[in-house]
Write a structure and sequence with these properties.
Chain lengths: 302, 452
Amino acid sequence: MILFEAKNVKKQFGSVLALDDVSISVPEQCIFGLLGPNGAGKTTLIRIINQITGPDSGELFLNGNKLKPADVMSIGYLPEERGLYKKMKVGEQALYFAQLKGLSKTEAMKRLKYWFRKLDMVDWWGKKVEELSKGMQQKVQFVTTVLHEPKLLIFDEPFTGFDPVNANVIKNEILYLRERGATIIFSTHNMESVEELCDNITLINKAKTILEGNVDDIRKKWAANEYDIVFAGDVTLSENGLYKILNRQTENEKSTIRLKTPGEADTNEILQTAMKSGKVISFNPALPSMNEIFIRVVEAKN
Amino acid sequence: MNKISIIIKREYMTRVRKKSFIIMTILAPVLMAAIIIVPTLVMMNQDQDFKKIAVMEDGSDLFKDVIKSTKNLEFVYLENARLEELKNSYEKDGYYGILYISPELVNTPNAIQLLSKKQPPIGLLDHIEGSLEKEIEKQKLMTYNIENLDEIMKNVDTKVSIQTKKIGDTGEVSETSTGIAMALAYLGGFLMYMLVFMFGAQVMRGVIEEKTSRVVEVIVSSVKPVQLMMGKIVGIALVGLTQFLIWVFLTIAIAGVIRSTILKKENITEVSQNVTKSLMTEEQQEAMGTQSANMTPQMNEFSKLFNSAMNQPWGLIIICFIFYFITGYLLYASIFAAIGSAVDNETETQQFMLPVTIPIILALMVAMGTMQNPESSLSFWCSMIPLTSPIVMVARLPFGVPYWQLAVSMVLMIITFLAFVWMAAKVYRTGILMYGKKTSWKEMWKWLRYSG
């Protein structure tokens, strides 16, 4: 089931075209990566989803219904630039944002207690925001984003500023939220976390969608008939008509060889040939990293 | 609607709980009161101090017993005294000082000296000068050989005090005082200027704070930018109103304390006489007319002034003040909010501030001119033009404004502030999400025309 959909969204600022006919479709309980280089139009799209600005043309749907002003209650947004009142106390501030999202004071208090305990932030309640470190502030902001239990969560670079331990805590919280039914739109430049977390992505460049789909499908598609064979010990493989050898590495008494086949490969045949040369540990299609794909796609378009 | 009230509450609470707000709110009237009380107390103490003054002349007795003693002052005329001896002994003999008069005084005004350890109070000097001036005038007149001079002098002694009365539309006559109208005009105009400017600028700073700390992006994902802007403007208006009311309350309370404890009925005239010379405050303006009058006409004058103060159209003035404060504040606060949204930090506001400040300053200047000439056409036009009318019209009110003028001015004001709030909301909506670009008026004009 599709939770959120944007159809043919266009947005222009003066003479600058920020979004040109962009469509995205986010399945329920999916972690959806919204990718693109700086200035591609991601933030504009996120703002349109949040109804901070309206599109010039195009339609938006939440749960199959047209997006309406009241839907901001079902959306949680963690902007890239963290924003908290510096002079305000952490607890009061969290309470304020929760009330703006429509929670009653008592309900907000109950949930805040739960989250502050869970993320080990209880001591911060009476402190002013400016007394906290950047990572701590981000934790506060994370809590205010998820507190009203929105169906759709939008995280713009959620991991920047966190140390690895806290980044992992937040990552697990995101996965936990998804498990409990939330759908997540995740905007980042960190392609490793895309591979790790995202189910689907859309890549925007210069206001246009240039790549979209399931992460695994995309990586397979971009694999372009390449395979990795790992042998035990120092093994060399000779080329034949079936494949070319692109690369060979020997490390820790293992040899990894990257092959490329000219067309649709007969993998069994390749494997049989390989087995004659040594002990095969693994045989996999070589998947390019999202990072590679990102760079290749964007550069090709430029 | 509910969300606006949450925003208003935050804007209000965070400001009201600030130390600077509490200090300002409490200290301002206390300071004001101190300015009133301290000199009053000083003067009263000096006055209540009994002073004995030795009077001596240099080889004549022209001014013997001319200076009359009063309740607190005793003038002792010493015949055949020698200045050198007196200088050494006057303190031992209980004198406050020595008044040394030279016979030249008749022709040379400064041929007189008061020798004392301390700086003598003005009241004492006034008393001596007044007595001697009268005596010299009398002596000069005597050289013209006029008969019955003493009687003539008594008859000639005159005081003039103009009674100003206002004729209403229906022909009824009520007592007014130009002094009170002027004071009210000044106070009203200046207060309006202060409130609009101070709290308008607070709105701007608040908007800049939200923009630079990027809080705004989080908030506008929950509420509409217009709601945030209006919440802030209304919240700060309430802060202003709170402060204003506390000031009014504290001032009344302090004034009441002064009246009951310090200005006891028996010496009210004496004190007020001295006080009005050095300062004029709201409290003492009632007693202003007492300056040169003596006892009975003084009380008369006092009650007249009081009556004329009461005859001011207070209801109208207060209602109009509140109306012009709300609309004027909304007008300027929305401009300030738009400016705040368009810049990245406070230093960038300067280029926008000037054109906004000009009408406010102009209005204040016109308002001050209004006190001199309430009917001038400049005052009239400035009290019609919405950017200046809040200040100028408030200054015109105590002098009487025809209802049709008031109505036109108010209608124009309402139309204009609605237009400004609407425009400001449009600029604000775009501006708060724009970073890193130097904004110009032209740019803001473009934002006005962006859709949704």
